[in-house]
Amino acid sequence: MKIITTILALVLPFLMFSQKEVKGKVTAGDSVKLKVSYVLPTEHPSIEVLFKAEHPNGFPYWGLEKEELQVFEANKECEIIYLKHFGNEKPINIALVLDHSGSMNHSRSDIIEFFGGDTTLFYNPNDSLWIAYSKSDFKPIINLQKAVSNFVEGFDFNKDKISVYGFSTVVDLVLPLSNNKLKIKSKIDSMKAQGSTAFLDAIFMAANQLPENDEINIIVAITDGGDNASSHTTTQIINLSNSKKLPIYCIGLGDVWELPLKSLSDSTNGFYLYTKKSSTLDSIYDLINKKIQAVYEMTYTSDNWSSDSSRDFILKFNTEGVIQLDSNFKFSLPPEVILKIEERNRLENLQLIGIGGGVFVIFLLGMGVVLFKRKKKEKIEFIRLYPNPGNGIVNLELKVPESIKELNLKVITPKGKVILSESINYDLKILNLTRLRAGLYLISISKEGYNTVSKKYFRR
User: Fold this and answer.
1) Of 23, 209, 282, 370, which is the most buried if we count CB atoms within 10 A?
2) Which of 54-58, 83-87, 222-226 is modeled with the greatest confidence?
3) Could you tell me which CATH number the domain at 90-293 has?
4) pTM score, two decimals?
């Protein structure tokens, strides 16, 4: 008995799950990988950028401040107006793919109970080794349910939604996207370990049913073995997920076949994690929660007034000694911004011609300046829109010059695509956008000869 106790004391510490987690600020010697999700230039010269900052191993950096970053356009440093954590604002949709096949019970004939307590010994005939486990590790389904239930608690169901796809021989436990936390947890708790493993079919169904929009959409999938019941292939899933820009976060548990899981994650810009012990699943799901929500929104002022539609910018850390793996990014200006820049450049050139020209040109320039000042003084003001986030019924509060009877309304996606363009009466108070899908939009109000104003709107 004493010999076995000594073996347990030596072996147990090395069986614990451990990974280096990146925390706090970026410091000298750290490696950083920036992932830019989108650039929103519709309010040029103000440019909005949505990005993540991660270690090359995939762990997120937290607590970034604007003083740590620098932005350059056309070799000129740009002023960063603000930087904020964005994961707690943008809607998040998560598809949970959960293994409840028979192996999640770990019923093994070669498990020997030790002292009738919480510790068991498992004999691995392949390596001729006895390995010590906690008894709870031989009921992975219980630990999975607890970990996923805690994971669900980390989201804001005023804006976020979660769907559930439990699988064994078939995908038999399905809950579509829901913001009902009790219903989500009830579906998770209803899982019973039984049957074979239709892992790929479950992921394909999740990818097929997740929406294609500008929200954060992610699949989080776990399995403890090789797929032996699916009709779909990894290639089909990768093609579907990439067409909808869906990253897949895969978790391998126990004696799992890791190759297809790594392929799914690597090919869809996701992340793969492995653990031998189900008792560590709580830590893994907590890490995934952080990765999903570790998104930053930055606004900077561009001093680049070129009318070229293609732009390059550099985003980098100004901390000495930081190893940055990528810093150069591209974006395109939408047509209305290019027109705005060309008009600004035209007026600037007119002023330069007036200075060097005759009295007649100066006279015209003077009239142009008077008109320009008048229009600038009589400007449109977008005071607020509410409720925001909302269900599509939007109250507008505008201040409009008396001479304006109609306004141009545009609804623009974060990628610069105009999905709605129409004329509205200046005295319109309520806007019906219920036909829009859930997501982030830019509501733009304009009038020819006057300024353009806009505000962000989150459609639930």
Assistant:
1) 282
2) 222-226
3) 3.40.50.410
4) 0.59
